[in-house]
User: Fold these one by one.
Assistant:
Number 1:
Amino acid sequence: MVTVTKHISVTVNGALRQAEVEPRLLLAHFLRDVLDLTGTHIGCDTSQCGACTVMVNGEAVKSCTMLAVQADGAAVTTVEGLGQMDAMHPIQQGFWEKHGLQCGFCTPGVMMAMVGLLKENPDPSEEEIRDGLEGVICRCTGYQFIVSAVQHAAKLIREAEETKQAMANAGEGR
Amino acid sequence: MAKMIGAPLKRKEDPKLITGNGRFTDDIKLPGMLYGAFVRSPHAHARIKAIDADGALALPGVVAVYTGQDLIGKVKAVPTMWYVTGANLKAKDRSALAVDKVRYAGECVALVVAENRYIARDAVDLIEVEYEELSAVVHQEAALAEGAPLVHDDVENNLALLWKAGEVPDEEFTEAEVVVKQRLYNQRVIPNPIETRGAVAQYNPGSDELTIWCTSQNPHIHRMVYADVLGIPETRLRVVSPDVGGGFGSKIATYNEEAVIGHAARDLKRPVKWIEERKEHFMATTHARDEVIEVELAGKRDGTFTAIRVKNTANLGAYLSTFGGGCPTIDFGLMVTGAYTIPKAAVVTYGVYTNTTPTDAYRGAGKPEAAYQIERIVDLFAQEIGMDPVEVRRKNLIPHEAFPYSTAMGVAYDSGNYQDTLGQALEIVDYEGLRKQQERLRQEGKWLGIGVSTYVELCGFGPSKVAGAIGFMGGVWENSTVRVHPSGKVSVFTGTSPHGQGTATTFAQVVAEKLGIPIDDIELISGDTRSVSMGWGTYGSRNTAVGGAAVAIAADRVVAKAKTIAAHELEASATDVEFSEGVFRVIGAPERSRTFQEIAKSANFAWNLPDGVEPALEGQSFFDPPNFVYPFGAHICVVEVDGQTGEIELKRYVAVDDVGRVINPLLAEGQVHGGVAQGIGQALWEGAVYSDNGQLLSGTFMDYAMPKARFFPTIESRFTENPSPVNPLGAKGVGETGTTGAPPAVVNAVMDALRPFGIKDLDMPLTPEKVWRAMQSRRENA
């Protein structure tokens, strides 16, 4: 059997990554096994659990339903690119502040899905957050503190926007 | 310093997990690592006639194939760990790989080891197994019937165990004013932590040491068992559970796959990884519940209960899993009288082999089933005598002044105020108001239902002599070392093995309070048999009540030694030195003082220690609790059933739980939410479905209804605190309260809503179709 490979170039968390991959390699396995970005997790075979969710060109995508070759030329953000200890993303702050995780296994995917939600809807109601969580399964938290975490993150993002706006306005006034 | 015990601190565990820096089993990558994949039986019951692995072995990248024959004499079957006493137990262990027969769909037949996971999977499809299919038996009652196929040729009637406890004379029922009887099916559920199982094994031929990283709730138990299975001294097997993505009981059990991966790594002298796919998790990781429970409650017209007898026919699956025998017997049987004063009780359990995946512990393990039967029959009793279910409960709940209370099943409930938790829950929901609203809505053809459960459960398994008496193959004590470094920073070692509970934070709170040091100065070390001498792991909500108690005692021992050293340095007697908020002071002369950090340094430098005092500063405890602990609570669920579609809308869910002393209310509430979600999941959606020939029809997340966020209302959680007298923290256990309290609260609510239809009982899960069919048949018959 001859293994066919394809050369791909993917911008992952801002850095250009290149590799020779089999066409059947899943994006999730490419990130985890080839690039050693193990923050993205795999929890099911059927795209139900959402633990593998990453951003592809700014949209939340389940990386187990996408082939690595399909990401050729795309920009991918994983949980590692969301924020780190010294500069956490508001969604990470929200999950930490509001106890939005227990075992933490589904959490990277849940956070990426919620980053996607907040991009579309910066001020979601509880119901809208619960609907937004449709594509993910968390077995630990009962979702309630996840909802609180997302609300907290939304508030942090809005406050940051307001501060930015106020500073821009102050700049204009000078 | 602020009080640490009782503070809702955010978790120390979280930063690494939310930045992608957690380290789970599948994140481990070792040089030269191979990948394993299992060939699993497609049949529930079949004879293996031949296995042809030539095609697989010819595939480039395949390194080895192992069959059951290859492992004979090398890897033993994985034994059960609970030889339930007095039950005529016929234990059947799971072979490492099936040799002559397979007994459930998904049983391992062969292992392929290859250069990567894709090749391994390809090779699985190239292995040809010739089977002779045999008749399968799926349901436990069918398995007991005359002429049923035998799962194991030498186990007559497929009866693996017969366990009896308590006695009630027949007259208690024949002569009682009221007797209600109900058959309840506690359906089979699948634990489904989002991280599946997995193992990475590495053998060092130079030192003859094998290391297995695996998804374990109790690495020391896994070491003990796998060492025996693989024929390795415990000293040369190291088991590490790194970050573990949930367990809910399914990662307590010892399994064949992890042991076989260990064997392959040793045999090939290369690291081998196997990560369970979700499809495999459904087929091969232990299931739970699956008990047919027939309960009979006798009492008086005034609402007083007088006797209960219960028959449990439990489906144990094809083999006896680790704690599989204990769940429907001891765990279930001791709790059948629930939170009530029922003077006489008797239980009998039939444990039955079938051609299904073995069953074992799942969040609550036996206690949710016990709570379900008693809480359902109490409602049916109330309905029979025309009394409000809350009134019947108030009449029979064990009174506050009766604690410690010895039940008819012979166990001593430690502490409680059951009436108080019920009262608080009723107040939160406005029970009286709800009943009036229900009346009004019924006039409009809307079906509101209110369900109450006043559960009690058994946690914090101990003491070890009890474990011995009931045939549990291990101890149930817990171990902690509190090690103080010269800097005054502290490492806490625990034999418990957390997997999402927030134990690093909880235990740090205990130590911070005891030692008066910042919480950030404390780290928790767990989950590695090389770091921690011994321990029994995390299950049955024993973490804080047993493991935390050991931590508290070990910290006290540190303080006692540090005080001796401080007194010596301060030239005072130890009795004249007081310790608070991290400072040792001479009583009456507070300017003469030493900080905890100063003593940590001087204890480790040992330049000036009192006579007879050894250097360094460590405290250790091996805490064996004198009794179990018994968390309890009152859960109230309000539902509305759609009369046209049978759909159930959860309107409100109130949980007032008493878990003894609450160390961190934020984390405790998180545990309640998770437990309630799983309990509601069992009540309304979840359930394993098998075809008659033993095919698991609910074998993926597409067919097994896992609870989603939009299904739930806000869970209104409160705590009352009746500290347990059996451990120094006064802690009970919080992890299982929800899975125990919720199923009966929800089912009672739905049945309450359906009362106008004359429907008394439906089995879980209460799917819209089931509810609609029940309503429709009543309408047609009306």
Note: The first strand of chain B starts at residue 34 and ends at 40.
Number 2:
Amino acid sequence: MMKVLFFASYREQLNCNELMLSADEQPATLSELRKQLSEKGDDWREVMEDGRTLVAVNQAMTRRDAELKDGDEVAFFPPVTGG
Amino acid sequence: MTTTVHLSVQTDDFDPALEQARLSDNAAVGGVVTFTGLVRDNNLDDHVSGLYLEHYPGMTESALQTIIDEASERWSLYAVSVIHRVGQLHPTDRIVFVGTASAHRQDAFAACDFIMDYLKTRAPFWKKETTPEGDRWIEERQSDKDAAQRWQG
């Protein structure tokens, strides 16, 4: 299984905070995951193609296309605004 | 140098005086710098009556620890304290605390400034404010990105 999380405005826009992908749905890379999620609809494509979208794999931010494996936790979120 | 770290993400309020005492509890410390962030009652010309803080449990703590580790490598610090509140807050509430202790003030000032700048751009917290027009997520500010950028290179 692969866990995909969404936070803040993206969670609301997609009406989804968590997706579980089974073994046969799991993409091999982050860019494949983005493409797969974009196909779920206009809102999803908007989030996936937004140049400001941040991604963390297993709770570490990544800026590159990453390889994904079973058990990974991938999170998509908008720019952070803490403090 | 071993840096003593106190890190907490919590819904409860905190006591800046207690943190000040914690940071000062070492005879080698010559300077303590602290920053306390408060919830304002206005933003972008609108009245703000509430602020909701969302975070990414698990990643938040590790992101803050990474920021503290980087500050400890750059400057000589005896102690660092970072507290960030989450959940529903209101104007005048304390929201964030960063404190640094060092032998000389320059290290403490720079490290405190650095931690706040990186916290605002790299730690997974999001603010949603309540205004007369409804609730809205706060957008990132270019000035925050620029502030973090100045520590690079």
Note: Helices of chain B lie at 16-24, 59-74, 105-122, 142-149.
